[in-house]
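Technical note accompanying the year-one report. For the benefit of new consortium partners, we illustrate the data format agreed upon in the data management plan: each record pairs a sequence with a structure-token string. No post-processing was applied to the example shown here.
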Amino acid sequence: MKKQTLLFVIALSSLITAFGQKKSNGTVYIEHPAIETVQAMNKAFVAGDSSKVASYLADDFKAWNGVGLATKPKGEDKASFAGSAKVWNDVLDYFSITQTKGAYPDAIEYKKDNDEDVVWVQNWEDIKGVHKKTGVKVNMPLHRLFILNKNNKIQAIINYTNESIFDEIGASFVNRTNGTIYNHHDNINTIRKGMYAFENLDLDKCLSYYSDDATFHSIHNQVGDSTPKSEIKALWEQFLENFEIVSIDMIGYPDYLEYEMGEGREVLSWWNYHLIRKSDKKEITVPMHFSNSFDADGKITSEMIYYSRALLSAK
């Protein structure tokens, strides 16, 4: 009994200590004049009204990149930030700054170390638009911290976002190559050999050109769905139970794209499948487009097929 009493006292003491460690350091508001100021500034910014944006900023305003690498960043001053409102409006179509779905701004009045009575507003937003020159789509989440002084002017903004989209915009201002296109290559030979093995019902030989972890995709699959190599042969056999292959003919010629970025390897090919539907002996021609990815060893790692399923069942 003494042991149980001692354990209870220790547990109770720990619980009291845990609750005793809590200490308030201010108040969080869901409605506050500071939030209204931030929202009004955003509205003016999206409208490209630099003068109105400036009216919400303190004279000593600074904007900072919260994920920047500079050890002593100077920050962006009032004139530059206000002027950027017009720049954003000029370079983006459909420009908007909206509240992230499910999120809302908080205004925080801290007690400790807040001699100047500033208010912090933290917000989660989405910036959207289409760059007018390059056509690059801008759709990025943005977390911002605003510091407002006792006169309800925005004194500082700290931005947290992934700015890699701006690298894509910058790179799109000039013409750049991204590898080589071949009209003859051993990977093209592999596609032809595999296709004609299928035409001759040699499914095992056809499969030999694919890597063990190859995946098979169709335009009719749900996004993200694929069939592994271990299951594709059964689907091919099912297809051959329903259709007789008269011939498979190449349309034009395949292209082999060897990319610099990511070291991608892709063969694009176009074919006419001349078939007889076994159920009613109807002759059908189905155009098909294949996009096949290759590894460095010349094995097919992924296959995507584009075709009209309606043609297979047409009356």
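Partners are asked to follow this layout when depositing records. The CA atoms of residues 255 and 307 lie 18 Å apart.
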